[in-house]
Input
Amino acid sequence: MAKGLFAPPTILVAGASGQTGNALVQLFDRAGFSVVGMSRAELDVASEASVQTALSAVQPDFVVNCARYPDVDRAESEGDSAHRLLVEGPINLAMACRSINATLIHLSSEYVFDGNDAPYDEQAPTAPLSLFGHYCREGELEIERILPAHIVLRVGLVFSADPRRFVANTLQTLRSHTEKRMVSDEIGTPTSVEDLGRVLVAVIRQLDLGSQAFGVYHYGGGGSASWFEMGELIYAQALQREDLPDNLLQPVRGDDVPGRAPRPKDVRLNCDRLLQNFGIKRLPWRSQMIQCVEQIYSREGDA
Ligand SMILES: NC(=O)c1ccc[n+]([C@@H]2O[C@H](COP(=O)([O-])OP(=O)(O)OC[C@H]3O[C@@H](n4cnc5c(N)ncnc54)[C@H](OP(=O)(O)O)[C@@H]3O)[C@@H](O)[C@H]2O)c1
Output
């Protein structure tokens, strides 16, 4: 049946149990989209059959891929499983999107760069240092090859109020008066999931209205930071609310952490293309982080 003139677009979110997928489902719903979130059990991006079945059933206008390989370091020793998620996943999604005329929005990583020439725009040559970064790039290229109707959005250092992730974990460590070491010599553009949602809602609305501005884009919150600097801001916010010992956070050089895959030192992203093609401005990561800590404290207050 033809869609009505004012019918909202249908969005299928893959990886919907993760910090980004879970938040996007709620934000898309609030934006008035018709949204279906699927966990890995419902839609395994690494399985061609699972992807075909899910997309045929939902018939989405847009698919947003939030499935993520969990560990950059593990990818070095478990190349096959990383390849399945980061390369075969995008292939499966792009093929299935093509067969139903859906647009694929794929979240990729700034680890496609080597960190020697930041800030990076979308035309900058890629030069991944790790197998994880290589496969991220291969996945991007496969999408470009298979499906013209795509947005590949490279995002940096994603954070949220998710109780399982970085901000909540850092707070928990500080409250147990345990010292925490955080890498201080690798910087990027931190991005909150809410801010990422704001960006994707704006992109989807414009594509749904007929924009053809497909391709690769960068997004990160305004400013830049290392994990250590992000930790410092969380610490400062916590100290405004409760009594904690000083000096629990210690900076550490990335190269001094044993067993780590190589990572780029500076992957700040230039996000001008998103501003030029979609009119989307960056929001400072610091105000996003302050809101995120606030969210965690008010959730505890409500409990
Ligand atoms: N986190 C960052 O700093 C960062 C940086 C740059 C880019 N990104 C991109 O942002 C996106 C979301 O990241 P995130 O931090 O929200 O990740 P996350 O919290 O780790 O969530 C990832 C989700 O992917 C799901 N998943 C894993 N394998 C899957 C499969 N084969 N099929 C379907 N789903 C699968 C996981 O499900 P299970 O829980 O069932 O395993 C999990 O719910 C990813 O595309 C990632 O590449 C993240």
About this structure: The first strand starts at residue 10 and ends at 14.
